Amino acid sequence: MSYTLIRLSIGRTNGVAHYGVLRRGTEPLTACATHSSDLAPIGERTGHQTCQSCTRALLVLATPPHPGELEARPAAGAGRSAAAHRPIPGHLLGYCGKALDSRRATGKRACANCAHLTKTVDTLRQRAGELALPAAEPCHSDDSLLWAPRGAGSLAFGHRRSSATGRTYCGEGQLDVPNPEAHECPTCLRLWAEEETFRQMYTLPDMRAHAATWDADVHGAFEDRAWLLEPGDRYTLSGCDEAHHVVAVSRHRYDSHVDLVVYLPGEDRVTDAHVHRDRLLSIQRPFADGSATPPPAPQREA
Questions:
Q1: Residue 17, Cβ neighbours under 10 Å: how many?
Q2: pLDDT 10s digits, 228-257
């Protein structure tokens, strides 16, 4: 028997939300091993804060692995002989939540927190059978998608998010909950239409010509996290065969994601992308003499 992975919480309107399953006649089973008979299903558009362990568990379950993925990596900034962490598939992020180095770990000591989440996810898989997962986050956006502030009701305005700034067009602030049934914010619609006109008239032809002359022989190739992307890079990621040419990047210190404007040659369009900051990417970056792979970009934080 299979179960659907859903959001569960003790509070109906706020509190901490967990991912888990409801099995008949037993206590709810969560991805982080939280136990409570009071856990009950909640909707997607609520004011709850999602449990960090459950968030990482969902990434483990839903993200396709990166080609050539390593089984153990040290924490970012630590030596290769430091404690070995288990990477979340397709990410430079440990099961424990630590940012990881792109190198292989050589230390024999394994991270206990990574081992704990591994155990709880394996238990969830064993007891829940074939899990039905929530829809995976796309690697590039639906241009017509509307967003609402977390906790907003269904009657609130739906806003468009600018990936050039990481904010709404109207200045409402950070949005992270899709709300496709909402009435569209008029200010966002007007400003988005102006930007879309500019993209179609100027950005799209420029990026089309740029992609047509792309030559892998004069670009350095390396693998690293999405946080290091710069305009002019080209990247691919697991689960998507499309090449993404980066037009603009917006990143902020406490954000879990990087907002991007990208050109997709296969679809011949400029669109927005919202990528986890620790997503493992295959990156190509132009460099002058073609003799060596360029160093990663500096980690600027806004």
A1: 24
A2: 999 999 999 998 889 999 999 988 877 888
Query: Which of these, 54, 48, 188, lies nearest to 120 by C-alpha position?
Result: 54
- Which alpha helices (DSSP H) does the chain contain, by range? 52-62, 112-128, 186-198, 204-212
Closest CA to 262 of 286, 230, 214: 230
Distance CA(23)–CA(17), nearest Å, equals: 18
CB atoms within 10 A of CB 137: 15
How many CA atoms lie within 13 Å of 128's alpha carbon, on the beta-carbon side?
Answer: 24
Spatial separation of the C-alpha atoms in residues 207 and 204, rounded to whole Å: 5
**Does residue 259 contact residue 266 with C-beta atoms inside 8 Å?**
no
Q: What are the strands, taking DSSP E only, across 155-204? A: 161-162, 167-168, 177-178
Overall pTM surpassing 0.70 (yes/no): yes
Query: For residue 293, what pLDDT is reported?
Result: 47
pLDDT at 268: 94
Average pLDDT over residues 73-99: 92
| 3-state DSSP assignment of residue 50 | strand
Helix, strand, or coil (residue 1): coil
